[in-house]
User: Fold this.
Amino acid sequence: KNKPLVLSGGNTSGDAYTISSYNDHDLVLATQNGGENRITVKSDDGAVGIGITDPDELLHVSGAAAGIAYL
Assistant:
């Protein structure tokens, strides 16, 4: 079920790291040994789901959320 995560780049000079998934797999951040998907980034369109694995919008939050009007 879980696919390997690729972590590349970065150094002590301050260059950023890249976190990505292999090929066309979504990037999923999970807890409980992978049993609870918390954040999903879709590989096809970059949509982000928080608490949902198939976001309908560019940012889709499942459950209660708070935000600032200028988002």
